[in-house]
Amino acid sequence: MCGIVGYIGSENSADIVYKGLEKLEYRGYDSAGIAVIKDDKIHIRRSVGKLINLQKNIKNNPISGFIGIGHTRWATHGKPSEENAHPHTDCSGKIVVVHNGIIENYIQIKQQLQKEGHKFASETDTEVIAHLIEKYYKGDLFNAVKSALKDIRGAYALSVICSDDDSRIIVARKDAPLILGVGKDENFIASDVSALLAYVRDVIFLENDDIAEIKKDSIKIFDKNGNEAKRTVQKILWDAIQAEKCGYKHFMLKEIYEQSQTIQDTFRGRISVEDNKILLETVKISKDFLNKISRICIVACGTSYHAGLVAKFMIEELTSIPAEVNIASEFRYGTPVLNGTVLTIFISQSGETADTLAALKLAKEKGATTLAICNVIGSSISREADNVLYTHCGPEIGVASTKAFTGQLTALYLLVMDFAIKKGTVSEDKLAYLIKQMWDIPIKVTECLKQSEQILEIAKTFHMKKQFIYLARNINYPIALEGALKLKEISYIYAEGYPAGEMKHGPIALIDENMPVMVIATKSKVYEKVLSNIEEAKARGAKIIAIANINNKEIIEKSDYQIFVPEVDEMFSPLINVIPLQFFSYYVSTMRGCDVDQPRNLAKSVTVE
Ligand code: AGP
Fold first, then answer.
1. Where does a domain end: 191, 212, 241?
2. Residue pair 155/136 in contact by the 8 Å Cβ criterion
3. Measured in angstroms, how far is the CA atom of residue 306 from the centroid of ligand 1?
4. Which residue has the least CA distance to atom 16 on ligand 1?
5. Model pTM?
6. 215 and 354 fall within a common domain
7. What is the 3-state secondary structure (H, E, C) of 91-122?
8. Number of domains in the chain
9. Which end of the chain is more exposed for a tag (fewer CB within 10 A), N or C?
């Protein structure tokens, strides 16, 4: 997720664009840049790192002009560097692009353009857009952008300027937000309203496949059929803080709701339903290597550790490779038996967790092959590992991990399917089935997100409880752990996740009318066993909240409260079942007056032991 800003009017666009980028820095902050047109020339300033570095750059080398575009980056393709910072230009340097999104087929486009003589200066997917526009440019920027978009597959929010014509900015969007700020003899472009509020309150939310020409005194929008479209001008009443959270009260709530998009962004360009393929261009693990390894050893902390526990089930079921999961702070001080026949996987949203990084270094010392799953390109863990598979979730600001967790699960599903294909342990039909299941997850997640009101009502009943037990079995047991962690870390209620079958070995002694029990009871091969566990707890006075599939009638008489979720294949159910638990912990925390986004004693990235 990146932030883009544009301006055309009578003020110095560099100042306005920079100030807009400051408001969008939460969307990405590994590099930034601004381009303006002045005296029929393009002037660009780009800097790696935080936005303040761009400010210093511009202070030392001022730029000004009445038309400009800018970008603050969250890298998805190509490490954080000045060369990879936006804006990107074509070969002539006349056409300049800033982009938020993912171009799925950028490799194929880049190869074709290189054959046609285009020279590339960056590793990004975005740069292909600038050269594609150049290919079609015959003097009319609008038509060139329109033609270029026909070749592109993926998500984009795009702003384009050309030094041949400083009277207009061309913008377009598909599956990434782009908003126009309507001013008087000036107009604005931004990824979200927070960058506009200092100047305008009248905004237009572009719709998918819209392409628009923005002049200082006019805005013309065209739909995908090329017809001029009338889009409603809306008045924004948010204040600046609310706007940064896109109107959500907390970043955590915003990030819960982003999960349909971030799951899709993580598999976008990596699965092909048409030709039944998994495409992981950054993972260089061969079939021969997979056939010789003795086991897979996963290492992580906290929520990322829970993602690893889910992955164990996937790995062993789909590839028959033995898998173990370790907590990094234990692993690094243990005596793990590692060698060249072990694949070690390190899961970390931040890519900076000290224990996980130390464990990775230990694994490398012992000769194990390493693979990292990270959300931050260029982070220490992603740089240290032999292989890396990035989640494309954008910055996760809330300390409690939500979208990064489902992004990690998505990346792990892709990885395990890739391994299964290479090992030949899944048939073509099974693979097609799994890919289709993954493809449909974002829609199922969206259905889940609609349960928030029901969950809020249940949270009202339980928010003053002092303790909670979370129960589940098999591939959902890690989700019981994750749900309990979420409740602990943001509402400070003591909560334990347990394998439901383990209760009779001691913990059931805890059950009485003061111990509420959350149970994951969705369709699975152990569903009947979970029902029995619910009855055991209920018989001892516990109030039961059951996560169950829509249309499950029997659960209503077995439990006191129900949260219904769409049915998916058991293997993918963790992606769905975790969402109500995220909402539940969020609502309980807010009702208890806790600091949801920055809970006490916690940090977003634990870079110390
Ligand atoms: C998750 O809600 C917690 N904030 C925490 O457990 C986190 O998952 C853990 O610190 C690992 O962080 P990482 O994924 O950045 O390595």
1. 241
2. no
3. 10
4. 348
5. 0.83
6. no
7. CCCCEEEEEEEEECCHHHHHHHHHHCCCCCCC
8. 3
9. C
How far apart are the CA of 267 and the centre of ligand 1, in A? Answer: 22
Task: Report the pocket of ligand 1 as residue ranges, CB < 6 Å.
Answer: 301-304, 348-350, 353, 356, 399-401, 489, 605-606
Residues 207 and 336 in one domain: no
Q: How large is the average pLDDT for residues 164-172? A: 98
Q: Ligand 1 center to residue 378 CA distance, Å?
A: 18
DSSP state string for 10-49? SS-HHHHHHHHHHHHGGG--SEEEEEEEETTEEEEEEEES
Q: Which residues are catalytic?
A: 2, 604
Is 322 in the same domain as 411? Answer: yes
Please name which of 583, 528, 593 lies closest in space to residue 555, comparing C-alpha atoms: 528
pLDDT digits (tens, 9 = 90+) for 419-452: 999 999 999 999 999 999 999 999 999 999 999 9
Same domain for 421 and 330: yes
Ligand 1 atom 9 nearest Cα: 302
Structure tokens at 352: 């900076």
CATH number at residue 100: 3.60.20.10
Tell me, yes or no, whether 604 lies in a domain.
Answer: no
Q: Is residue 598 part of a domain?
A: no
Residue with tokens 């897979």: 296
Is residue 26 domain-shared with residue 152, that is, in the same domain?
yes
Domain that holds residue 143: 3-241
Please, which pLDDT band fits residue 76 given cuts at 50, 70 and 90?
Answer: confident
Report d(CA 4, CA 573) in Å as an integer: 35
The token duo for 281 is 């261009």
Of 182, 215, 241, the residue at which a domain comes to its end is 241
Which atom of ligand 1 is nearest to 301's Cα? 11
The residue written with tokens 């634990």 in the block is 606
Length of the chain measured in residues: 609
